[in-house]
Every structure is written in C-alpha cells, then in structure tokens.
User: Fold this.
Amino acid sequence: MKSTFISSLVIASLFVLSCNKEEAASTVLDTNENSALDEYVTLKSGITVMKHGGDYILEGDIILTPEQLKSLDETGSIAGNVSVELNRDLTLNPVTNLPMNPEDMIGTKNLGVYPTSYNLWAMVRFVYDRNLTSSQRNCIKQALLELQGKTNLRFYNATGEPTRDPVYGFDYPYINFVSVGPRDVSYSYVGRIGGKQDIALADFAFWGSYYGDYGVIEHEICHAVGMLHEQSRPDRDNYVTINWNNLTNDGRAQFEKQSSNYFYRGSYDFNSLMGYDSYTSSTSVVRDTSKPMYTKKDGSNIYQGSTVSEQDRKWINYLYLPYVARSDSYRELDAVVYDGDNKKLTERERLQMQAQLNNGNPNPPAGGRISNEF
Ligand SMILES: [Zn+2]
Assistant:
C-alpha cells in the first residue's frame, strides 16, 4: 500500500512518530526515491506488473511468488499451484473441512483469493525481524491485537523459534515482519505461500499509530491472509469511475481487475481497509495529486478504512477459526468465535463446533496450551 500522506517531510517534522513515543522517527527521505528503479512489465495475459529489484509487484503492493507470476503470465490468474482446488465446493471450509452454508449468510464479503487448504492459515505464524525497533514491534503488536479482537484470525509469535519442522524437515510457513525504511510503499504477499514470506513495512506504515491507527500494517496483514484490493473486484466498474487520464503507468497497474481466482459476495464496500482512497500524494501514481485516482459513480470521494470494515471482517470470519496455540493436536477454540456474518457463537454453539473439530470431544486436555506472547 502506498503512503497517502500529503507530505511525509512535513508530517515527520511535526510529530514524534512512534507508538510509545520513546524513539524519534528515523531519517525521512523523499518518498519517490525508489521509483526511478522500477520498471513495468506487461505479461502475455495483458496484465501489467512492476519489477522492483528482484521482485514482481501486482497492484502496487502485492509481491508475487515465481509460481504466481508464471500463472499470471499464462492465465491472468494468480492461482499458481492451487488451481486444482479452484472448483472445490465452498460449503466445506477448506482448512477445517467443517460444513459452511453460504446461503445462510446474506452479508457482503470483500474480495480475496479463492480459498484453499494451500493458501489459508490455521494460525498465522509470524516472527519479528531483528531490524525492527522496539516501538515498531509494539505497533505491529497493536495491529495484531486489533485484528484478533475483531476477527477469527489468530497469530502465533514464533520469533526465535526454529523455521523448519524438526521431525519432517519441511519449512514452516511464516510471516517475517521487516522494516524497509523510508520508502513510499509497504509490501506483502497474498495468502499463505509456504516458507518465509515478508511483510515489508515502510516508515509511513508506523505513522498512523500516533493516532491509534494501525491501518497500513493491518492492510498488509490482510493481504497475507488472502485479501485482495476492493478496487480490483471484477464488478467494480458498476460502482466506481476510474480517472485513467490522471494515472501514470504505475497508477494504471494498481487498477488491474481480478478476472479469476477470487472469492467475494455482495456489493462494493466503500469502507474497506483493502480499497484505496480516491486521492494519493504519490506522484509515481498520479499526474496531478489534486485530482482523484477514482471516485464513486456519483463523483464523491472514497476514503480507505483505518481498520477492517464490517465486510472485511465477514470475509475473514467466514473462512477462519480462532485457534488457541497448543503443543498437541487438539483444536481448541478461543472464547469468542464469530460466524460469517460477524455474529458471536453462543457458548453452546462454540462447544459444539469444538467437538466437531475433535472427533466429538468438546473438552481440551488440560495443560496443552503453550505460551504465545506478542
Ligand atoms: Zn494492498
């Protein structure tokens, strides 16, 4: 996600930009310093991606795996190696195999990858990179706690733990939160990709925390759990008008539509954390920063949410369950479990689901929980 601050230099000089205010902001350079190094590549499928160093970037902030890039090139879809599962029946949760009934849920859900057992997480394993300051770590912690409070997502802090399974020798999938300094873009992969996957946070990602706003960090985390940009919905032209004349090549590449490998229901969500603001201060995206990138159909502006919207929550809650970290294979649910309409399950419903997950046993053995401090 791009910085939307009017002037990073002005803002940086006004505030001490950290969560606990103990550390001053590090150096802030011109926000477009990296843009000259970027090049645009149009794939065989017609989709334009940005090449930034060794990485290929879709829609401004989504890093592509080699498999996703190949698949995007050949088919226009980022399905990658999960395409065999794309037609699976979504009345069964792809991770838990418990029944879900989409017809029971009338609410809109926002856009994300087509969910499979490959690209979703059970618990989201993460580590803090050593290059983060303590205040940056604290900002990430606040973002994780906010997401845990509002959704069924659960995170497991594996900082300092092995990255490879000692018995079977496979690499654990995990997110590495890393600081990338004074850039104007933060990056994430979309969905679980296997092994280590960075969430690269630029300095601006931490600035909103001065106001208790962790939106940029949460946006990148939501990519990693499978969400895509709301403005790339295949039906978006019914809801928004894109100001193509004001977009640069970089800007145009941020408004690609998803043509396959997506999962959404209902109408466009103008409050989504995953939809961009109408305006950006980034001159690598727009020719004239006083004019919008896009607007609602009636010409009014769109404002990106500062945390997950009700519809964002529905997308997540429909697919995820709030597991408690344990050392055994028992699947214990946290105290609050949401259904796909963001309604809390009753205690009876929660225990019923816990029993279904554990071959009929609703009571987790004592002592199986493991410490999971952020
Ligand atoms: Zn994004």
Remarks:
- The CA atoms of residues 46 and 76 lie 8 Å apart.
- The longest strand covers residues 174-181.
- The first helix runs from residue 8 to 14.
- Residues 1, 61, 219, 223, 229 surround zinc ion (CB under 6 Å).
